[in-house]
Amino acid sequence: MSSMGVLKGKPVDLNIKRLHLPIVIKTNCPTCGHENEEDLQVSNLDYPCTNEECIMEQYCYSCDCRYNIDYLLTLDFEYKVSEDE
Prior knowledge:
Distance between the termini: 16 Å
Shape: elongated
Oligomer: single chain
Strand content: over 45%
Structural class: mainly beta
């Protein structure tokens, strides 16, 4: 039997400087509309925490501007109770 839990409630500091994830974030620049991509396996989230809205800065190479992306990181924790043999 396996159970799943979600970290709920207060923000949790992961106590790491950088987090790489297999995610590509695609956004449109609010100034020029150009589609930008941020590959989090190459780039990273700086000082991430969970259950709290965070901000990641995005750079647009088309019009040379910076803008912010709001994100929320949540974690699932799955566990299984093993029987001793």
